[in-house]
Amino acid sequence: MSMRSNSSSSYSREDDRNKDTSSPSTLDSRFNQTLRNVQGMLKGRSFPGKVLITQRSDPLDQSALQSPSNNIRFSNNDIEHGEQLDRSAEDVIQTRSNANASSSANKTKASTASTENTSNEVQKTVMGARSTDSARLMKFQKELSGTTVVLEKLRELAWSGVPPYLRPTVWRLLLGYAPSNSDRREGVLKRKRLEYLDCVAQYYDIPDIERTDEEISMLRQIAVDCPRTVPDVSFFQQAAVLKSLERILYTWAIRHPASGYVQGINDLATPFLVVFLSEYLSGSVDTWSMADLSPEKISNVEADCYWCLSKLLDGMQDHYTFAQPGIQRLVFKLKELVRRIDEPVSTRMEEQGLEFLQFAFRWFNCLLIREIPFHLVARLWDTYLAEGDALRDFLVYIFASFLLTVI
Amino acid sequence: MGSSGQGQSNFDLSFKILLIGDSGVGKSSLLVSFISNAVDDLAPTIGVDFKIKLFTVGGKKLKLTIWDTAGQERFRTLTSSYYRGAQGIVLVYDVTRRDTFTNLSDVWAKEVELYSTNQDCIKMLVGNKVDRESERVVSREEGISLAKEFGCLYLECSARTRENVERCFEELALKIMEVPSLLEEGSTVGKRNILKQKQEQHTPPAGSCCS
């Protein structure tokens, strides 16, 4: 691992911007490779990785396991199918074409190029992929149409990617926010959404004199951070989006005093916002306008985001409490894992004095949202959410692969 | 690639600089503005980040390793270890937000006192966002007076328009080079690896670790 001068310590989207001109199509393929490598590393681990891998005839697991840093060429596997399902998502949640930043022109070009690249690759196996897609869609629909959704089966399916139009439903189920019993579902969601409104009324919609000094400074911190959340996606600059984000984050923070609001949690709310808004808004995310939505719809979306964010963070409370011990522990595990997989890289990093905390802390704090293009985040989160309780350990594997792929 | 830290160095001196101050005052923007001339909006810094800049001041080729820290209190345990061995510390505030200015005395100066190991370390007070003159609430005079109190350099700048951005790091570097002990550190530490935190105590002095 070498440090580039005049550059950031860690692989970030800013770096992509600089690299775009030289290697426009590497981003998406690098992302795919990361997920594939993770599959390789997960060999021998219990569900769902193992189940999925034994079901697949993936000849590349071996090489991925032995040397994830090699440039392994993949032609066809399940992740790509997931990706292909996602291509319709790229129409909906379109890449980050940003009207104001000059660099975004390059980015858009780059991602268009890579999409074309993917479709070229897919062309070769188009028949197979298509039949698999419709078969996968059928499986999802079958799973979701029952009176009781079998979560284990849904997890298995979702791990390889969820069709975008089913994503809101699937995510709510995977997080345990919507009950698996379909008879109860509507009632529970309705109740939860009302409960959220109550919370907002009780905690957010009050004058500052009723808040403690601590609460005021937390609200101020959230207000400072909302306008700089995913700054390269212009949709997040809309006043109504900022307001929604602020309400969600503040309400969450007040109800979780052990951690309160910690920077980075604002990032974690964004995939939920985009996914739940996609139920009501179509087309590219950059063309979305909150003005097209009724206040009721907005409050439903907010409530869903709030509860799903809560569910996600329930499993990682100590990531955000004082001194963030949960993250410290995972960074240590990552370091150990990388040493086991690739001793030379590990040694080299040590020689250079590069510490894992210096780059991996942010990865765990924001779950890689900062490191990959925003339009790919929802796909990555399909897999995260499918992992359920195992997510924390799974992150270590994803990040090890991400690190070794980047190198 | 990565050769700057080893063997034949393409710089004469190497310094470690630290950026601190409240969340949202523009520490990262200042750094990005200095490094790459870009003025894009940035997401809040998580933990610490760093960038390296090679530039020439007073006829010397310098390598600056600039550590950018998160302003939020929750990250303080992480960021506090980066004060060690810094030759320069930039305390940044936002001229349009008074609380970021008062926190320099209430919070940040105390952090420096507590964690900086370098007695001679050069400090610089920087008031950012002067491009938003109409929203200014902290006057230049107040800034200068606090800088006098702290005994440090002072400058107002704008990361957005890049006004005074280069000057800020130039003046800091020049001042560092005027202090013999820091100059000495800059010429020996540079031969070692500046990223290394813990090495400061353990490594034998004067370049014994490189080829």
UniProtKB/TrEMBL annotation, chain A:
SUPFAM superfamilies, sorted: Ypt/Rab-GAP domain of gyp1p
Keywords of the record: GTPase activation
UniProt keyword Lipid metabolism present: no
Comp. bias (Polar residues): 21-32, 63-77
Region (Disordered): 1-32, 58-78, 96-124
Domain of life: Eukaryota
Domain Rab-GAP TBC: 161-388
Molecular-function annotations in GO: GTPase activator activity
Biased composition (Low complexity): 1-11, 97-115
Protein name listed in UniProt: Rab-GAP TBC domain-containing protein
Organism (species): Olea europaea subsp. europaea
UniProtKB/TrEMBL annotation, chain B:
Family per similarity comment: Belongs to the small GTPase superfamily. Rab family.
GO cellular component, one term: plasma membrane
Molecular functions (GO terms): GTP binding; GTPase activity
GO biological-process terms attached to the record: protein transport
Function: Intracellular vesicle trafficking and protein transport.
Subcellular location: Cell membrane
Membrane topology recorded in Swiss-Prot or TrEMBL: Lipid-anchor
Protein name: Ras-related RABC2a-like
Keyword field contains Nucleus: no
A matching Pfam family: Ras
UniProt keyword list: Cell membrane, GTP-binding, Lipoprotein, Membrane, Nucleotide-binding, Prenylation, Protein transport, Transport
